[in-house]
Amino acid sequence: MQLIDINVTRTIPALAEKIFDVWIDPKRRGSPWFGVERVILRPVVDGLFYFAVEHEGQKWHHYGRFMRIEPPWLIQYTWMSQATKGLESIVTVTIEELENETHVTIKHSGLPDDELGGQHKEGWTWILSALAESLSV
Q1: What DSSP assignment string belongs to 77-97?
Q2: pLDDT digit string (tens) for 113-129?
Q3: Which domains occur in the chain, in start order?
């Protein structure tokens, strides 16, 4: 099976610490875990996560394990779901502060090179938009 990597970047006018804090808190609007049907999240190295979302009439289950956490600059975890066909892909969130704004880059590696794998780019773009919006209020 062919695998692909997806990269999404967004500049957000907020401090790196604020971005990091929102990312790992499922109760904060803008977090990738916010508003999901069910979430279990332990954001420490070797901590596990699970969440389920409803999308287009289907329940999507996601699982993973935190590999690296370096506040406030880096979060890396494995990611498995029906869309990865059970393969363990890797999500790396890099947070780079520059003066009054911060570049957030998501690299999702090891996705199947098919329609569902490619749709992760749209999902991560949406997540970064929600994160930016939550920090602009």
Answers
A1: EEEEEGGGTT--EEEEEEEEE
A2: 999 999 999 999 999 99
A3: 3-32+69-135 (3.30.530.20)
